[in-house]
Amino acid sequence: MSKKGYVLDSTAIIQGVDPNLLRCESFTIRELLDEIGEIGRRWMRIKTAMMLGKLMIRDPSTRSRGKVEEAAKEYGVYDKLSKPDIKILALGYELRNDENYDVEIISDDYDIQNTAALLNLKYISVGVMRIRKTFTYIKYCPACRRKYNKYTGTICPVCGHKLVSLKHLVNEESF
Ligand SMILES: [Zn+2]
């Protein structure tokens, strides 16, 4: 059985993917921490995830980096990738090939996704993760402030005011 894991790139972190909410361990590279800076809420989330062992900082081996560079050159995408991009991909490659992880790269970067596909690495985009949030709606009366669950009408049965729909997050998928 392979372990499940995620590799987070900077687009994932910047767009608010929280490693603490992911069901399995995630990995990223040192450069990403430098990029986001050690301040603010985002950094607090990252720091907490690292302390809880939910996020691991790893430097992929020279060998894995070489493999990714070689493939990127072969497919003509090498020029599109930054050094951190290569390392993110190498980390995914290494976890899958050397450590038997069922790994997915979470990224909204087209060139990372494209190269991941060329390397046969799984990836998902941050947008997809957002969609996996589940919402329900409740009706709310702005006049008398009553809330109605599972009520299909549009008018408040108590005061007759027009109801509004409130979005209510029921499940933030942690997968
Ligand atoms: Zn009302």
- Spatial separation of the terminal alpha carbons: 17 Å
Number of helices: 7
Main structural class: alpha/beta
Strand runs, count = 8
Task: Classify the beta-strand content into a percent band.
Answer: 15-25%
Percent range of helical residues = 25-40%
CATH architectural group of the largest domain: 3-Layer(aba) Sandwich
Main sheet strand line-up: 3-2-1-4-5
What compounds are bound to the protein? zinc ion
Alpha-carbon Rg, integer: 21 Å
Shape: elongated
Largest sheet: 5 strands, parallel
Looking at this structure, what is the CATH superfamily of the largest domain? 5'-nuclease
* CATH secondary-structure class of the largest domain: Alpha Beta
What would a concise description of this structure say?
Helix content is 39%, strand content 23%. It has 175 residues and is of the alpha/beta class. Strand 4, helix 6 and strand 5 form a beta-alpha-beta unit.
